[in-house]
Amino acid sequence: MTVSALTEPHWIKVKRSELRQNQRATLKRAKGRTVVLISASDEEEEKLVMDKEYFNEVLGKLRAAVETLSITMDARLFGQIMAAAKTLDADIRLGKLRSFEEAFGEG
To answer: pLDDT tens for residues 6-19?
Structure first.
């Protein structure tokens, strides 16, 4: 799923009374990137219903972003990565790099 699809869900707002009356149909609407917002008189009591697969994709992207951020905030590690990146093209041409299977004997 694209990043914009993950960060821009389709929202359906439903009142609690409508959820009580049509629970099965309302819950079925939470499919893919469609998120059902169960509204309440108090905004703090609002709840979301979303597809588990969509939630897991969003959570996975969030974890990846946090990991990337932590790497870029580690000045020493990020410097090493950037230094290695400068030689990647030459290393590939010279055959200095190995595939995952060659390096770890898997595959």
So the answer is: 778 999 999 999 99
